[in-house]
Amino acid sequence: MLDVFLGTVNKILNKYIVDIKELRQGEHIFNFDVDDSFFAEFKESEISRAKVVVDLNLQKHSNMLELYFNIEGVVEVVCDRCLDRFFIPISYNGDVFIKILDSISDEEKDDDVWYISSNESELDLAHYIYESICLSLPIQRFHGILGTLEEDCDKEMMKRLNELSVKDSDSEVIELDPRWEKLKDLLQN
């Protein structure tokens, strides 16, 4: 996880770097705005437009950092049904605990804690913020979830999908493979 915080970043992602050497021990509050330019830096991202606010409460101790994230906003995604782009609300709360050590042995490592060298002076939060936003998205994304309107689905695309879908009706009999029927019997037992 160390690579999340290290490395060179460009001008846009520099806004998401916290200078931890300059911070005194105690509580520090940071606010970051995440917009379209942020997601443009992540070429593999399925999100291209966004308006998200990241509130970070950072507690600095002599050999540890506690980071408490609250991420709220909207991001534009593709509807799984009609393939039209639409905005969906996102919300994420997460905690990160970082130990600051001179050296780290594999036996001492804890999966729930991140580690950085005492020589590190900066904390790059861009990748963590990006991943947290992506993970806060629902698996299925379609008009009609999380307060969005189902009526906003592309009417022409929905009409085509309905025409092409297989329907079980009186006029049309769908013959099922008998193996599926035997599997259904197993579920009932």
Topology (SSEs and partners):
Elements: E1 17-19, E2 26-34, H1 36-40, E3 50-60, E4 64-78, E5 85-101, E6 114-117, E7 122-124, H2 126-136, H3 155-164, H4 178-188
Parallel strand pairs: 5-6
Antiparallel strand pairs: 1-7, 2-3, 3-4, 4-5
General description of the model:
The chain has helices at 36-40, 126-136, 155-164, 178-188; strands spanning 17-19, 26-34, 50-60, 64-78, 85-101, 114-117, 122-124. By secondary structure, it is an alpha+beta fold. It is extended.
Key traits:
189 residues; alpha+beta; disordered N terminus
In which range does the helix fraction lie? 10-25%
Number of domains: 2
Low-confidence parts, pLDDT < 50 over ≥5 residues? 1-9
Shape: extended
Strand fraction: 25-35%
**Main sheet attributes: strand count, strand direction, barrel closure:** 5 strands, mixed
Helices and strands, in order, run as EEHEEEEEHHH
Please work out how many helical segments DSSP would assign. 4
Mean pLDDT: 85
Number of strands: 7
Strand order of the largest sheet: 2-3-4-5-6
N- and C-termini, Cα separation? 46 Å
Summarize this entry quickly:
This protein is an alpha+beta fold and 189 residues long.
